[in-house]
Design brief:
The chain is of the alpha/beta class. The protein is about 50% helix and about 10% strand. The chain has 3 domains: about 190 residues, Ribonuclease H-like superfamily/Ribonuclease H (Nucleotidyltransferase, domain 5, 2-Layer Sandwich), CATH 3.30.420.10; about 80 residues, DNA polymerase, domain 1 (Orthogonal Bundle); about 70 residues, HRDC domain (DNA polymerase, domain 1), CATH 1.10.150.80. The chain has a 6-stranded mixed beta sheet, with helices on both faces. Helix 3 links the parallel strand 5 and strand 6.
């Protein structure tokens, strides 16, 4: 394990940021506290260069706004930023600091495009470099200070080998003629914007088993879901740590009328009964007074509407799935990485006649249209 330097003051960070802008490549990771808090935040930023590892502590400097000196480095097209599974890191950094990004390399996306059976950082580090990375702090609460030595070592290990790993994976991408595919995926990720996350009032319908409930039970589940979220906000804890989904479903089905009946349900502890038992029972009572209406067809407001396929489109979809399964096997790729179902549906509905037309479909990625457009259109030509 290499040494690391802790950055806990603004002057230290400003000096580091200026140095980072001069680097050709840096490795980046972040640690947040979403597993422990309703309102999650960036708690640590890890950066590695060819000469050192730096653990930047925004909480020690007063909050995430202290990270602003890193903005020019993230936005610079001259500095390559290497992440593993960059999506969440970029999301929190854009949300917390409004950073923009350029010149990205993501080792997880690369592993997907190379068809690796395991795409976690530990798995690909062992595959390429023979390293065994620690996993013992994956569920740490990164918001608590002081951080333990084991946490700091774990955080440093996440970026220590990323530069070398990037070099090895880039060779593999070039060898497999998939470097351009990866580059397009990286650029799309840098440009991605996330809508502001609002409370999902229909989230209870996404709980496994919810749609099998009777209408009055489903109405109770809705009320319980709202009570749980309100409590989670009050105490700044993730909703699942306030009351598990399985317990919500059982309460909705059994509809207890007393605290004793509530306490008999698996997952409902004495502490839950003491702190929110009355609120839960009131939610049950409200739910039983009004039958749940029809379940909305669209549960995600930000998702594009699904297109209804006629029989001809369904036949084309079947042909496309067969083509994808065979081609993915040849390429040793996961079928969903080669072409997601939503993209196949768009192609089946639009019926493009050539690669140029398939490239015009918004759901189709550029590299897929170039590499496989002619094959796809030929497959459905006679359908």
């Amino acid at each position: 394990m290499a040494d690391y330097q802790r950055i806990e003051t603004q002057p230290e960070l400003e000096a580091l940021a200026k140095d980072l802008e001069k680097q050709k490549v840096v490795a980046v990771d972040t640690e947040a506290d979403s597993f422990y808090h309703y309102y999650d935040k960036t708690c640590l930023v890890q950066i590695a260069t060819r000469k050192g590892i730096y653990l930047i502590d925004p909480l020690a400097m007063g909050g995430v706004e202290s990270l602003m000196p890193l903005g020019p480095m993230f936005a610079s097209p001259d500095v390559r930023k290497i992440f593993h599974a960059a999506e969440y890191d970029i999301f929190v950094l854009k949300r917390d600091c409004q950073f923009s990004f350029a010149n990205l390399f993501d080792t997880m996306i690369s592993a997907q495009l190379l068809g690796y059976p395991a795409i976690g950082l530990a798995a690909i580090a062992e595959r390429h470099l023979g390293l065994k990375l620690p996993k013992d702090e994956q569920r740490s609460d990164w918001s608590i200070r002081p951080l333990r030595d084991s946490q700091l070592k774990y955080a440093a290990s996440d970026v220590e080998s990323l530069i070398q790993l990037c070099e090895e994976m880039e060779k593999a991408l070039k060898k497999n003629k998939r470097r351009e595919w990866a580059q397009e995926e990286f650029e799309a990720l840098t440009l991605r914007e996330w809508p502001e996350r609002n409370f999902d009032k229909l989230g209870y319908l996404k709980i496994k088993g919810a749609r099998t409930l009777e209408p009055f039970c489903l109405s109770v589940l809705r009320e319980l879901f709202l009570v749980r979220d309100r409590r989670a906000r009050e105490i700044d804890r993730p909703a699942f740590k306030v009351l598990a989904n399985r317990a919500l479903l059982e309460i909705a089905e059994r509809q207890p009328k007393t605290e004793g009946e509530l306490a008999a349900i698996k997952g409902v502890t004495d502490l839950i009964v003491r702190r929110m038992g009355r609120d839960v029972l009131d939610a049950v009572e409200r739910g039983t007074k009004k039958k749940h209406g029809p379940i909305p067809k669209k549960l995600n407001e930000n998702a594009p509407p699904r297109r209804r396929m006629d029989r001809a489109a369904e036949r084309r979809m079947a042909v496309l799935k067969k083509w994808r399964a065979e081609r993915a096997k040849e390429l040793e790729l996961d079928p969903g990485v080669l072409c997601p179902n939503a993209t196949l549906e768009a192609v089946a509905c639009d019926v493009p006649k050539n690669a140029s037309e398939i490239a015009e479909i918004p759901a189709v990625k550029g590299w897929f249209a170039r590499e496989f457009g002619d094959e796809v259109t030929a497959a459905i030509a006679d359908e």
